[in-house]
Amino acid sequence: MTPLANFARFVLLWIAVFVAAFLGLGWWAIAIVGALGVVYWAFVVRGVEERKAKALEKLASTLMASEQKLADAIQLRLCALTSRRLVVAATSSRVILIERPLLGGFTMKDYQWKDLHDATLSENLLPNLFGSRLTFAIRRDGQEQVEGVVLADGLEQRVASTLYTAAQEQEQAWEEKRRVRTMEEARASSGGITLGGYPGNGGTAGVSTLDELERAKKLLDSGVISDVEFNEIKSKILSKQVF
Question: pTM for the complete prediction?
Answer without folding.
Answer: 0.65
